[in-house]
Amino acid sequence: MFKGGYLGKLLRVNLSNGSIVVENVDPDIYRLFLGGRGAAAYYYYREIGPDTDPLSPDNKLIFFTGPLTGLSLPSTTKFQLATRSPMTGLYLCSNSSGRVGPHLKFAGYDGLIVEGRAANPVFIYINNDSVDVRDASSLWEERTSRVEKRLKELAGEPRAAVMSIGPAAFKGADLACIMVDGRSFGRGGTGRVMASKNLKAVVVYGSGKIPVYEAERINDLGKTAAQRAREGKPVHTRFGTAQYTGVMNEFGCYPSYNFRTGVFDGIDTITAEYMEKHYKVKNLACYRCPVACAQLCEVKEGPFKGFKSDPEYETIGAFGGQCGVSDFGAIVAANSLCDEYGLDTMSTGTIIAYAMECYELGLFTEKELGMKLPFGDGEAMVAMVKRMGEMEGFGAELARGFRYLAQKYPATVPYMMHAKWMPFAAYEPRGFHGIGLSYGTSSRGACHNVGGWTIRDELLTGEYDPFAIKGKGELVKVIQDTRAYIDSLGICTVVRSAMGFTDKPTGNVLELVTGYDFMPELMTIGERIYTLERLILGREGVTRDNDYLPDRIMKEKLPEGPARGHMLSKEMYDEMLDEYYRARGWDKEGRPTPERLQELGLEFCLREG
Amino acid sequence: MRIAVRYLGPASSFSNTASDVLEFDRPVSLQQVLDTITARHNYNFTPPAWALLLEGRGVANENWAGILIEADAEITILPHLSGG
Known about the structure:
The complex is a heterodimer.
Chain A: E1 9-14, E2 20-24, H1 27-33, H2 36-47, E3 61-65, E4 79-84, E5 91-96, H3 100-106, E6 111-115, E7 122-127, E8 130-135, H4 144-155, E9 161-164, H5 167-170, E10 178-180, E11 183-185, H6 190-196, E12 199-205, H7 215-232, H8 234-239, H9 244-250, H10 272-278, E13 280-284, E14 294-298, E15 308-309, H11 313-321, H12 328-341, H13 345-360, H14 366-369, H15 378-390, H16 395-398, H17 402-408, E16 418-419, E17 422-423, H18 433-441, H19 455-459, H20 472-486, H21 509-514, H22 522-539, H23 551-555, H24 570-584, H25 594-599, H26 603-607
Parallel strand pairs in A: 1-6, 7-12
Antiparallel strand pairs in A: 1-2, 3-4, 3-6, 4-5, 7-8, 9-10, 9-12, 10-11, 13-14, 14-15, 16-17
Chain B: E1 2-7, H1 11-15, E2 19-23, E3 28-29, H2 30-41, E4 50-54, E5 57-58, E6 68-69, E7 73-79
Parallel strand pairs in B: 1-7
Antiparallel strand pairs in B: 1-2, 3-6, 4-5, 4-7
């Protein structure tokens, strides 16, 4: 069926019994789900039952590349992970850049499934068709940057790509991520799942070629697309996603002080422009990316002198506005520590903001926390990040995430900004109502990407009033479906438009790569993936009740700024949610109907109940 | 006729100013306003990199050429946000 883009092979490593098997992938899986997120969700649906404990050997790490991963096109860096999240207790999809995805394909595999649990710490080493599981005892407690260096030495292959976990994961942090060449599978506790398998790292080196149906034409198209992406993204190159910081604040939608307001009084020293002037060292680029949006920053003076990291918009939002911290050096330091310990920056910052509010309200005492933790105190924030990374003192509590904290400290629940236990991203739903619906209906909890990033449509197109309700259900569905198929391609969303991958797909990239004309079906594939994910979530107990937002969003009005006086009441939200379910062909409880499952080619889900 | 221009966030780094007030003696197209800005700051704010609000409301990139401004107005130029 396919003449390129796919290798058609999946590597399965069972760490309990040491078996290493290469399996064929049924081409129908690619026809229906494209690859990447879609294929990973399919295997999750098949192999991870609703009663699976996220930290048991029965949970799996399902990595999948897409048909474009590793090709000579712009930013073909992405690969996807599906697993059951210890942070939310639910299905989790996550994507990462880095070189591991491309090298997995160069080695001959579209996907990698890791299952079981090793008796002792190990790493998996994949070198083309040679695959083995090696001892990692001496590396187990190492931080991520040292692990990468040492693993390349141990493997004897300096060109290898590495994904690894840091100390936070093996010490039990549910916020732990998997670091991939300086990027990450960030959200939902992927690192803790990997630690539960006694797996420190996966090292991959591949030297093979990925077949491409029309290789010469793809090379030419790649050059044109790279040029288009570079010319279309000068602001990303100069400022990265940090560019949104000042802009969101201007619209009163920059979540600050744990979402108590949408205007940050310390904004002037955390904007992208300030970052460029005082902290930026150079750009960093992911695999084959012509935009290079990552901004490496260094703190040159003050208490955080010497720290280096590349904070993105979300990280600046979590550690900046959310924690009320206006010292950009503290943000760089917090980001750097998260990377070294292997913690998700977004969840870490948002949970510290929650702890700060609880501290100011007297719900957490100085004695309990082991420190004063007021809003705006950058040094305290960085100290708490360190404690979370080390799982020391109250840091060990916060690093378990909201689901755990809600059980243990029920009085603090009103101050947890989350959906399905996933901490919010840095956009204010009371100022952009569509993003509220995105958080509520995202298939991994409050995520602005998987949930559908509505800001462009609500702010820039003139078609939507940010405070309107009508039309947002349909809008969110379209953006979610678009994102679902893009996450299955293997490219970064920053360059997608340059290759025609929008909600109205154009061009012939996929046909030139695979020999199969996916273009007319891409939005249906996106909807199919999203619907399958909803079926999985339903199987794990999610209903309409789980699609709502915290009371702060639904009952408290924003106190200041351009969005002053706005909230997203339950009545307003219900109207959006009903429209969204209707657009999806789901019933009033958010369950996909049998008719829609049949229309989408998901009959097998009906047959299997 | 006065057209106030705001350069929001990173846009101000490309124009080297946070705002302008442009004067025209007759109705002008949005494109003419942008041409004036280009001449003044030696930087061309073009799609798809940049977005534009007219009186606070977004104008899709594909509609820029067809807009005629006939009275005092405020334009905001900002990066074309693309997800993050």
